[in-house]
Amino acid sequence: MSEHHPGAQPAPAALAADDPYEIGGYRLHARLGSGGMGVVYLAYTPGGRPIALKAVRREFAADPEFRERFAQEVASARRIHGLFTAQVVDSGVDHRTPWLATAYVPGPSLHEVVRRHGPLPTRTVLLLVAGIAEALQAIHRAGVVHRDLKPANVLVAGDGPRVIDFGIARAADAAALTGTGLRIGTAAFMAPEQALGHQVAPATDVFALGALAGYVAGGVPPFGNGPESGALYRVVHEHPDLTRVPPELHDLISWCLAKRPQDRPTTVELIASVHAHPEVGPRPEFTDGWLPRPVLDEVGGRADGAPPPAPVHALATRPAPAARADGGPHLPTRADTAAPGPAQAAPQPPVPAAPATPADPAALPRGPGPGRRAPGRGRRRLPTAVAAAAVTLLACAGAVYYLDGPAGDGAGPDGGSTAPSAPSVTSAPTGPSAASPSAPAAAASGYVPGYARAELTAPDSGYEFDLKAGKVVAAETATWYLARDGRAFLPSEDSDAFVAETGELTVADCVRGIETRPAAVLPFGALAKARPFCVRSPDRGEIAIVRLVEAVPDGSVTIIADQYRRS
């Protein structure tokens, strides 16, 4: 899934009204996140240890081929026993709603650590390499190849890294999908053989570890960010760019990034090289000082697995679930009982100032344009296949699986929108005072209006919509954005989206839709003016409700946007 983990492991959130009371005998305490494959809940073992319980969505649960492969992958994952992996502790592959429980790791992902704190010191990088290599040894001993080792799939705890998502997502890579050439993995961290569709092996994960180390040491992946096609080409044909990586790490990382699998080190050789490095010595230990102080303060230095307190009601106050009228088993939800009091509110981001008038695109500096994304900005490439091809694995520290395919249904023959044409103009947002018609519903959902009815035109793919400010900016400029990716919209990484089924969309509808039916694709052809969609910011503090006005093939895109922010 595309999991949200602002800084640290996502703070638990109150259960939604339609969330179950318990799964597999585990009473659920809070939500940790949701995504294309299901929902992650915080639960506890009978002895009081926290676990991350991942429940599969109904559409996957109804697919017999998925269930069979899910069972196979869970069986493989349960054989993995490593101190640097998030241990699988229980599962329910035969349940009506298949589920998987893993150890809860109270720490941020490496992706989030680097995003917040920048590149890490050489000694920290080396210790991470040794710990992750040991995790890979445990994974490979079980006959599993991870296939998607990347910074978002490595959590940082006070006593070392934890590798997550080892192979379970392959359950969603069913024959119906592989037949269309879809691929699971992350382009910037794929090995050449994986990018070419050849057989993967343990050496494939070693290549990914080298790319991960280069990212952690330099701040950008060695093969760059940007469109998947460009990253895949560089992985297969070009040398890695290690100019930002400290020279003392070049040899080790280059060894891992050898194009031929047989030229890469084994995990044993990799750990031995770390031991021999003068920055580490023969005893690589995750003791005080292995992490920079700001990162350690964020992690908390805790190795006891205790999560932050859940901002939810004490479940002991809930009455026992009632029996169903038909005599069948009842799976109670939050709606079965009245809440005893308001949930604790999560810390909110500061309220932004009223947005400035959108800049004239003609006066903006040119962006890098398609295929030339600026370094350091990770873009999540939305799949352009049908929504059923969204196979993002749910995990405590988000993993995005990239899928390639044909354009979404509903696109015109020229790739443009079938939406009615409108004047291609850029107008200023009217500000918070000009509330949209859905303002009362927004307030009821905990959001207040920001700018309203901002009509914005991006001349071409060198520009993007800054959803926070309500204006058009050069590509790679905004932090929360909506960009063009061929014949579809591309939201910023870790944003959530939902497409309305009718011509009306409120903030409450958006929040509910994101949690129950998140959009995997945003093709222009399916977004006529009568069908609005919404995008929620990565920190969940803001929502933009957007209507597509016009999309000119290989040209300008015009939208009308309303923004809301948490009150």
Separation of the first and last Cα atoms: 27 Å
Placed side by side, the strands forming the largest sheet appear as 1-2-3-4-6-5
The parts where pLDDT drops under 50 for at least 5 residues are: 1-9, 173-183, 302-438
Biggest sheet character: 6 strands, antiparallel
How much helicity do the residues have?
10-25%
Counting DSSP E segments of at least 2 residues, the number of strands comes to: 18
Number of helices: 13
- Overall geometry: globular
Seen as an oligomer or otherwise, the chain set is: single chain
Radius of gyration: 23 Å
Mean pLDDT rating? 73
Kindly estimate the percentage of residues that lie in beta strands according to DSSP.
15-25%
Structural class: alpha+beta
Q: How would you describe this structure to a colleague?
A:
- This protein has 567 residues and is an alpha+beta fold.
- The protein contains 13 helices and 18 strands.
- It has helices spanning 58-61, 64-78, 110-117, 122-141, 175-178, 192-195, 202-218, 228-237, 250-256, 267-276, 293-299, 439-444, 507-516; strands at 22-23, 26-34, 38-44, 50-56, 88-92, 99-103, 154-157, 160-163, 447-449, 454-458, 463-466, 471-474, 481-485, 488-491, 496-499, 533-536, 542-551, 557-566.
- The strands form 4 sheets. The protein has a 6-stranded antiparallel beta sheet. Strands 9, 10, 15, 16, 17 and 18 form a 6-stranded antiparallel beta sheet that branches. Strands 12-11-13-14 form a 4-stranded antiparallel beta sheet, with no helix packed on it.
- Strand 17 (542-551) and strand 18 (557-566) form a beta hairpin.
- The radius of gyration is 23 Å and the shape is globular.
- The protein starts with 21 loop residues before the first strand and ends with a strand.
- Residues 1-9, 173-183 and 302-438 have low confidence and may be disordered.
